[in-house]
């Protein structure tokens, strides 16, 4: 099968390319940096130069590849920023503008299926129990959360409603593993080691984590399995901030995390710190398990964290 991976050198893109090649697929993977081509070639794929916000390069790359399936993993999240809105700005454009161009090019190229990245942590904070793929999204959230939710929603609509293409949206949880923010050299782990990541309020926000390897397995499975639609790709055990932060600190032999009030968190970090730390609801992975036949190597972040940092 000819598969086109948009964003083939990122934390998730690179192992996806490797896994698809290992399965015997003919893979074309993109980067907007020519110096990354050797990475793609070493994985056994063919590199293509593509800027997801440049319509001409998107149409040219997809037109040359004529892929049966496109896996869209384009983001701009690798470089951390202290300003949340600035950090998300290019990714928001890639979701909305980039996806529009990609889906149009996919239709022109005769692509039959598109598997695209989204996020599971953007649901309304009201309600009880785990959310699922039909739960209301936080479309009226305060900025900068609102812009990110709206960009993801726009991308999801394009993927699911483009005529002639089976669209699959994977709403990933918070990644952890090598190369991620929650990895040995990642921003979160570094912050926990230094005592700079506090628990917000009561720390009741239920983080949906997923190990990179499990996210890759779900993505590769979705290439040729599962009905079109949305799937939460999260592990089995929601992680309250008041539990996972001290747990990680203990593994890292770091100081116990401090606490800040919601008002202090909003002033010092931003409204997203309050949403994630106190309001985020758990997400269910039941649909992905049932319809994709997805099984997790790391059902719980507890065992995953311990293996990763142990």
Describe the protein.
The chain is α/β, with parallel strands linked by helices and 310 residues long. The protein contains 12 helices and 13 strands. Helix 3 (55-65) packs across helix 4 (84-109), helix 4 runs parallel beside helix 5 and helix 8 (241-251) packs parallel to helix 12 (301-309). The N and C termini lie far apart (39 Å). The model has no long low-confidence stretch (mean pLDDT 96).
Helix content: 40-55%
Q: Based on CA inertia axes, which overall geometry fits?
A: globular
User: What portion of the residues fall into strands of 2 or more residues?
Assistant: 15-25%
Total of helices: 12
In whole angstroms, how far apart are the ends?
Answer: 39 Å
Taking all Cα atoms into account, the compactness measure Rg is 19 Å
Count every beta strand, where a strand is a DSSP E run of 2 or more residues: 13
Compute the average pLDDT.
Answer: 96
Helix/strand-derived class?
A: alpha/beta
Placed side by side, the strands forming the largest sheet appear as 3-2-1-4-5-6-11
Order of helices and strands: EHEHEHEHEHEEHEEEHEEHEHHHH
Low-confidence stretches: none
The main sheet comes to:
7 strands, parallel
């Amino acid at each position: 099968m000819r598969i086109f991976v948009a964003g083939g050198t990122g934390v998730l893109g690179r192992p996806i390319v490797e896994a698809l090649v290992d399965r015997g697929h003919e893979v074309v993977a993109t980067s907007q940096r020519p110096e990354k081509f050797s990475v793609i070639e070493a994985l056994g794929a063919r590199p293509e130069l593509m800027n997801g916000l440049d319509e001409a390069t998107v149409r040219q790359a997809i037109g040359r590849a004529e892929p049966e399936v496109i896996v869209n993993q384009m983001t701009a999240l690798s470089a951390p920023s202290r300003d949340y809105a600035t950090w998300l700005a290019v990714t928001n454009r890639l979701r909305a503008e980039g996806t529009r161009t990609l889906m149009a090019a996919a239709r022109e190229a005769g692509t039959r299926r598109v598997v695209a990245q989204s996020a599971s942590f953007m649901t309304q904070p009201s309600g009880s129990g785990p959310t699922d793929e039909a739960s209301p999204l936080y479309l009226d959230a305060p900025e900068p959360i609102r812009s990110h939710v709206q960009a993801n929603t726009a991308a999801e609509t394009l993927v699911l409603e483009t005529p002639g293409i089976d669209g699959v949206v994977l709403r990933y949880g918070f990644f952890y593993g090598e190369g991620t923010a929650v990895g040995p050299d990642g921003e979160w782990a570094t912050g926990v080691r230094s005592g700079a990541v506090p628990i917000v309020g009561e720390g009741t926000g239920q983080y949906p984590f997923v190990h990179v390897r499990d996210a890759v397995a779900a993505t590769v499975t979705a290439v040729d399995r599962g009905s079109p639609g949305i799937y939460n790709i999260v592990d089995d055990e929601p992680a309250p901030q008041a539990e996972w932060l001290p747990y990680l600190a203990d593994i890292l032999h770091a100081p116990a995390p401090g606490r800040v009030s919601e008002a202090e968190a909003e002033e010092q970090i931003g409204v997203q710190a309050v949403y994630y730390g106190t309001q985020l609801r758990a997400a269910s992975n039941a649909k992905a398990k049932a319809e994709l036949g997805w099984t997790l190597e790391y059902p719980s972040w507890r065992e995953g964290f311990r293996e990763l940092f142990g």
